[in-house]
Write a structure and sequence with these properties.
Length: 584
């Protein structure tokens, strides 16, 4: 392939879409690429024939396709006759296309390419643009919608990246919309065709039967043309002007409604009142023929608000906060975040207090569902990340049982910055640190119904982060540093749980990212005492492991240190503008 056309512009290919149903594709080779080619061929409805010697080791995916009878394997080395003998009968047994997977420098690749070119059989050789007469595109498939990208030999990885970005920019369900609009177009064409045929027949009958076309007298060619135009214009107008997002949500009912409004003409030949009233082709009558705006459909957005500071909200959650009709927040969601909710939006904060947690949760879920069912956008706002000890999974399952599903886009879950990671960072603790810690364990200090959870075992390179633990930190330390009675009672040769050394570094991080953030640095054997003396400032968590002392080693002789206050997240307006775009 030449890189440049004669006018200096880069060479471009003729992009075509081949209907390959029932075509015979010859795939030469047995490597994973041969498997990929067979898959592509099958997905286009063709019949791949694999040519590889009987002793070839087939890639397992290929082996499966052969075993399942999807791919025919001709167990012999390639021979020239294959090109002219294995194809469809109707085209004299010549194969429809050839895929060579053995690479550009193989003499066989060059030979097959030359032969195919001479006989005008489309040929593709892996990594050898000069040996190909066609290239495969990087494709995105969504139902009948296919998008293909080529960089014309400049790199398939780049093409694949571009294709992914293009696809990601499209609204979901666009393939469905293509199918629906395609069906509508076909129905309009078919009905018009039938009507024309009926009219023509009526014309013939007039003399022979002696009956005039009284039933259809109102329908003239001009009427028909007008109706056809209107329906087709409806289609082309929405295809041109509706935002893609709206187009992607078009329903079968939208299409049926539109077709119905021209029913009289389409079925009986007598124009219905609605069709007559819409017969003028002025823009206003056109817009009146668009389906009425879809009724508002509710949505539930389950989002995490981060550890506290409003700047740690994600942009997605911030947008949800501004767009919601109702905000249902957990008790821990900080005031700074709630202040961002527009004044017009009602905010309900969970009335959770000890002993009432279940009832409060049920109340919140019922409110969410009710608002959702009346077509509202509900923001269910949680603290930190919604899936980290936030009962987020339970809520999504509950909504699904009541007809609001993630798969239908009715429920959206947005991640949040979890305190489990943000709090250590804001306390100057890198929970993974080369040669110090190579794993992070996030766990709870409180089990279901207030019971103690199983204590995690000591691993030297582990940083353990305990949420919901500070109110029972004394018990927790005991569990980490000594075997429980139950464990002691277990007889036999089961290896005992490794215990955390009592001098392991740890830190209590409270109200991370809030103005009154506080960090207590100490060791396991003194932490309970420190918390008791300093008092608690919830919410807070406990970080345990060598990583705690990496940037902030405890001064010799000190049992603990306390750092009060939060340095803020200010990165300077200039940098902030660069990151977020100028402030609105
Ligand atoms: N979904 C939340 C956790 C909910 S459980 C998240 O991802 O962060 C509540 C526990 O989170 C609290 O008991 C406390 O241990 C911890 N926590 C929440 N916010 C915190 C903060 N700002 N600083 C320290 N710990 C916090």
């Amino acid at each position: 392939m030449s890189a440049c056309a004669s006018n200096g512009n880069p060479h471009v290919s003729l992009l075509t879409a081949t209907d390959a149903r029932a075509h015979v594709h010859l795939v030469i080779g047995s490597n994973p690429l041969a498997a990929a080619r067979c898959t592509q061929s099958l997905s286009a409805g063709a019949s791949p024939v694999l040519v590889a010697p009987g002793e070839a080791e087939l890639h397992y995916a290929l082996r499966k396709r052969v075993d399942d009878g999807e791919v025919k394997w001709l167990r012999e080395p390639f021979r020239d006759e294959h090109l002219f003998a294995l194809g469809r009968e109707e085209i004299g047994h010549v194969v429809d296309a050839v895929f060579v997977t053995s690479g550009p420098r193989e003499p066989l690749s060059i030979h097959i390419s030359t032969l195919c070119k001479r006989h005008r059989i489309p040929v593709n050789v892996v990594d050898a643009p000069q040996l190909c007469t066609f290239a495969l595109l990087s494709t995105h498939v969504d139902g009948p919608l296919q998008i293909g990208v080529t960089t014309n030999g400049r790199g398939c990885k780049l093409a694949s990246r571009i294709r992914r970005e293009v696809a990601a920019a499209l609204p979901p369900n666009l393939g469905d919309a293509c199918r629906r609009l395609g069906d509508a177009r076909r129905r309009i064409q078919e009905e018009d065709h039938l009507l024309h045929a009926a009219l023509a027949a009526d014309g013939d009958d007039d003399d022979s039967v002696g009956q005039s076309a009284a039933f259809n007298r109102l329908v003239t060619e001009a009427d028909l043309e007008a109706a056809k135009n209107r329906r087709m214009r409806w289609l082309s107008q929405i295809c041109e002007y509706w935002p893609l997002k709206r187009l992607a949500t078009i329903t079968d009912d939208d299409v049926t409604d539109m077709l119905k409004s021209y029913e009289g003409l389409g079925n009986t030949g007598a124009p219905s009142a609605s069709a007559e009233s819409a017969s003028a082709s002025s823009p206003s009558s056109l817009s009146s023929s668009l389906p009425p705006p879809a009724p508002r459909i509710g949505r539930i957005i389950l989002a995490g608000s981060g550890p506290g500071h409003p700047d740690l909200l994600t942009r997605a959650t911030y947008r949800a906060l501004r767009a919601a009709d109702l905000v249902l927040a957990d008790k821990l969601v900080p005031a700074g975040v709630l202040e961002l909710v527009p004044r017009r939006t009602p905010v309900h904060i969970a009335r959770k207090f000890p002993g009432n947690a279940e009832a409060a949760q049920e109340e919140l879920l019922a409110l969410a569902l009710e608002a959702f069912q009346s077509g509202k956008t509900v923001l269910r706002l949680k603290q930190g990340d919604p899936y980290v000890y936030g009962r987020g999974g339970e809520e999504v399952a509950f909504f699904a049982r009541h007809g609001a599903r993630v798969a239908d886009g009715r429920v959206v879950v947005l991640p949040g910055v979890t305190s489990a990671l943000a709090a250590p960072l804001l306390a100057g603790i890198p929970p993974t640190q080369r040669d110090v810690a190579d794993q992070i364990l996030v766990c709870t200090g409180t089990g279901k119904k207030g019971r103690a959870p199983d204590p995690p075992e000591f691993v030297p390179g582990r940083t353990a982060v305990f949420l919901m633990a500070l109110h029972r930190v004394g018990d927790l330390v005991r569990e980490l540093t000594a075997h429980t009675e139950a464990e002691a009672g277990v007889a036999g040769d089961k290896p005992a749980r490794a215990l955390w050394p009592r001098d392991t570094s740890c830190a209590v991080v409270e109200r991370a990212s809030c103005p009154d953030q506080r960090v207590i640095r100490t060791t396991l054997d003194r932490v309970a005492e420190a918390v008791e003396q300093e008092g608690s400032r919830p919410p807070g968590l406990l970080v345990v492991g060598r990583a705690c002392a990496f940037l902030h080693p405890l001064e010799k002789g000190r049992a603990w240190t306390v750092e009060d206050g939060f340095r803020g997240l200010d990165v300077g307006d200039e940098l902030a503008d660069g990151l977020w775009g100028p402030a609105a």
